[in-house]
Write a structure and sequence with these properties.
Nucleotidyltransferase, domain 5; 3 domains; binds zinc ion; five-stranded mixed beta sheet; alpha/beta; globular; Arc Repressor Mutant, subunit A; 382 residues
């Protein structure tokens, strides 16, 4: 391993101590030194810097272990605000979020088919409002975009629904707002959101499959988002699962999305029930009542999704599979159908230890994930 420069070592120690305080309710300098293996002098130095920056404060004395009782420290959750933005749905959503995931202010703007420069202007409008409203310093801006991204360069390579191609979104926003900006795929940050702010029982890895208008997945491995070699990890929606299937928006036939996305399921049910308003709730109710017109459509969706999950767990052996988005409206019954397909198609030893569940976070998941992505990059938290 290369030796760290003094500047890098300092940065490393700063993040290590900050993370240690973040993960404890209250903690003394001596306990930080013990947990991090840093010297008492280094810890005192670093803590002073963190206090000057407002991230840490003293909160009284702890119990004495013989000598002078130690001063306890705690993390200041509103030392900075994170700006999280979700561009994946029919309305752009943004929020000011504290460093524990608490939402302080939300702003949504409906974007009826806004695309190209019009869509970009709506992003500016959203951010102008949030930045102006912040009564704490802003750590930066994190954005979840539906499409293929180059996360390293902050470029949107292709976002079909927004009609963006090779858009240098990070640079544009950094110039306008003068703070750090991180741009990533919406499904990928949704996975990080569930890992950071959701109810994960001590798991270090998970795969989240987001099924709404489209279908995509995000992969968290050992606490970090895995983007893949060209940022496309988790792009499962346009894998062909039936060559004789329906034509997909991408030009191919029978992509996973044509069976599993909410849009595709609703369209198929609409063709059969004529003159009725169909949404996911409708499909849930009809399916629960044994309506033959929706049964095949729901079973096909469960089948293709279950097969995809069987492949994912065979490759990654990640035991926590989370489903998110509109599909969750189909309820636990749908989850059971998917589990059954996984059990029938995956190696027993792998299927047995895999847990498939619905996400614990709702519609705020992408903007909270974008904020989590920013926090991880800037502060190394959690
Ligand atoms: Zn496709």
């Amino acid at each position: 391993m290369q030796k760290l420069t003094p500047q890098q070592a300092r940065e490393h120690n700063l993040k290590l101590v900050l993370r240690t305080i973040y993960n404890s309710a209250r903690i003394s300098r001596a306990d930080i030194a013990r947990l991090t293996n840093l010297t008492r002098a280094t810890v005192s130095d670093v803590v002073e810097e963190l206090m000057n920056k407002g991230f840490v404060r003293e909160v009284g004395l702890g119990p004495s272990t013989g000598g002078k009782p130690p001063t306890l420290l705690e993390f200041v959750e509103d030392a900075r605000y994170l700006v999280g933005v979700d561009l994946a749905e029919d309305e752009f959503r943004g929020a000011l979020i504290d460093l524990r995931g608490g939402i302080k202010r939300k702003y949504n703007t409906r974007v009826k088919q806004a695309s190209g420069s019009e869509a970009l202007n709506r992003v500016y409008e959203l951010l102008d409002v949030l930045v102006k409203d912040a009564d704490r310093p802003i750590l930066g801006i994190g954005i979840g975009v539906p499409g293929l991204m180059d996360a390293d360069r902050g470029m949107v390579l292709k976002a079909v629904s927004l009609d963006w191609q090779n858009l240098p979104l990070r640079d544009l926003l950094q110039e306008r707002y003068n703070v750090s900006v991180y741009v990533a795929n919406d499904c990928q940050v949704a996975a990080l959101s569930e890992y950071t702010f959701g109810k994960c029982e001590k798991t270090e890895s998970l795969v989240l499959i987001k099924i709404g208008r489209g279908v995509g997945a995000g992969v968290v491995i050992n606490g970090s988002l895995y983007h893949g070699d060209s940022s496309g990890a988790g792009e499962i929606g346009h894998v062909v699962v039936d060559e004789n299937g329906e034509r997909c928006g991408c030009g191919k036939r029978g992509c996973l999305e044509t069976f599993v996305s909410c849009r595709a399921m609703i369209r198929k049910v609409e063709r059969r029930v004529k003159n009725e308003e169909v949404d996911m709730k409708y499909i849930f109710t009809a399916f629960s009542a044994g309506d033959e017109r929706v049964k095949r459509i729901v079973l096909d969706a469960a089948h293709h999704l279950g097969l995809m999950i069987a492949h994912i767990i065979a490759i990654l052996n990640i035991q926590e599979i989370v489903l998110a988005g509109g599909i969750t409206e189909l309820g636990e019954g749908f989850l059971k159908l998917v589990e059954k397909v996984v059990r029938e198609h995956a190696l027993d030893a792998l299927a047995k230890v895999t847990r498939i569940r619905f996400a614990s976070l709702g519609e705020d998941m992408v903007m909270m994930g974008a904020a989590a992505f920013l926090m991880k990059k800037e502060l190394g938290l959690p």
